[in-house]
Design goal:
alpha/beta; six-stranded mixed β-sheet; four-stranded antiparallel β-sheet
C-alpha cells in the first residue's frame, strides 16, 4: 500500500496586511515532495507575496511556514545553509546579473558556498548548462547577447546549480513564443524526473499550467479557496473559478488534453 507523500512545505494561519489592505487571511496550504503545485489567482490576489514569504524574502506578520521540517513564526531564514542549498528559484525575467557572463551567473551560488575550487566550479557549471541545452560556446557571453529563451535557460541552470530539492518558478514561460514555451515545459518535466524535484510555480499561461500541474492552489478573496487536481476542483462555485475553468476547458478541448491526463498528488 502506498504511503502518503512527504510534506515539504506547510503553511498555517498566514495573515498578510499592509495598512488597511488585507492580502491573505488565514491561508493554509501543504505542498508534497515530488509534486508540481501551481498558484493561480487574479491580479492582486497575493501569489507573488506568498511565494516571497515561503522563501523568507518577506517577513511574516501572523501565521507560520514550515519548510523541510523547519519552522519559524516570523520568517524562514533561507540563508541557513542546510535550507538554502536545497532551494532553487527562477525569477520571472530571469534576473541574471548583467555585468556577469553566462558562466559567472551560474557559478555565483557555487562560489558563495566557498566549498569548491575553480576547477570543480567549472565542471559543475558546464554540467548545469548542458542540462538546460546551453552549449559551451555561450558560456562567455553577456546576458545582453542572449535571446529571451536562452536567458530563461541560463537562469534555470543557476537555480539548479546547488542540486536543489525544491524549485520555485515565477512565470517560467512568460515572454516566450509558443514553441519555446513548449520546449521549456518539456525541459522542466525532464529535470523534475531526473532530479526528483518538488516544484512550486506561478503562471498565467494556461498551456503551461495544464501541461505541468499536479495540483492547483487557487487564491481569491484573501484565502486559498481550492486545492487539488484540475478535475477535482472544477466544481467550486466562485466567479474566478467559473472564468478560470471556462478558459481551462477551452485549452483542454483545443489541445486534446483528457481528464485522465490530469495529474494527482504523488505518493511514495
Amino acid at each position: 500500500m502506498n504511503k502518503p507523500a512527504e510534506v515539504v512545505i506547510e503553511i498555517k494561519g498566514l495573515h498578510t496586511q499592509y495598512g488597511n489592505h488585507v492580502v491573505h487571511k488565514d491561508v493554509n496550504l501543504t505542498i508534497y515532495r515530488g509534486e508540481i503545485l501551481t498558484l493561480v489567482g487574479g491580479s492582486g490576489s497575493g501569489k507573488t507575496t506568498l511565494l516571497r514569504q515561503i522563501l523568507g524574502l518577506e517577513k511574516l506578520r501572523q501565521g507560520s511556514v514550515k519548510i523541510f521540517g523547519k519552522t519559524n513564526n516570523t520568517s524562514i531564514n533561507v540563508e541557513e545553509k542546510d535550507v538554502y542549498q536545497r532551494i532553487g528559484v527562477l525569477f520571472q525575467q530571469g534576473a541574471l546579473f548583467s555585468a556577469l557572463t553566462v558562466f559567472d551567473n551560474v557559478a555565483l551560488p557555487l562560489r558563495e558556498l566557498r566549498r569548491f575550487d575553480e576547477k570543480t566550479i567549472y565542471d559543475l557549471v558546464m554540467i548545469k548548462l548542458d542540462m538546460v541545452a546551453i552549449g559551451p560556446e555561450h558560456a562567455n557571453k553577456m546576458p545582453a547577447a542572449l535571446s529571451g529563451g536562452m536567458i530563461k535557460r541560463v537562469a534555470l541552470a543557476r537555480a539548479l546549480a546547488l542540486d536543489p530539492e525544491l524549485l520555485f518558478l515565477d512565470e517560467p514561460t512568460a515572454g516566450l513564443d509558443p514553441e519555446l514555451s513548449e520546449n521549456f515545459v518539456e525541459l522542466i518535466l525532464s529535470l523534475r524526473r531526473e532530479m526528483n524535484l518538488t516544484v512550486i510555480m506561478i503562471t498565467h499561461d494556461l498551456d503551461t499550467l495544464v501541461a505541468l500541474s499536479d495540483r492547483v492552489a487557487v487564491l481569491a478573496d484573501q484565502h486559498v479557496i481550492a486545492v487539488g487536481a484540475l478535475n477535482e476542483i472544477n466544481h467550486i462555485d466562485h466567479p474566478f473559478m467559473a472564468n478560470f475553468f471556462k478558459n481551462i476547458q477551452h485549452k483542454i478541448n483545443t489541445n486534446n488534453y483528457s481528464e485522465q491526463s490530469w495529474k494527482t498528488v504523488p505518493t511514495l
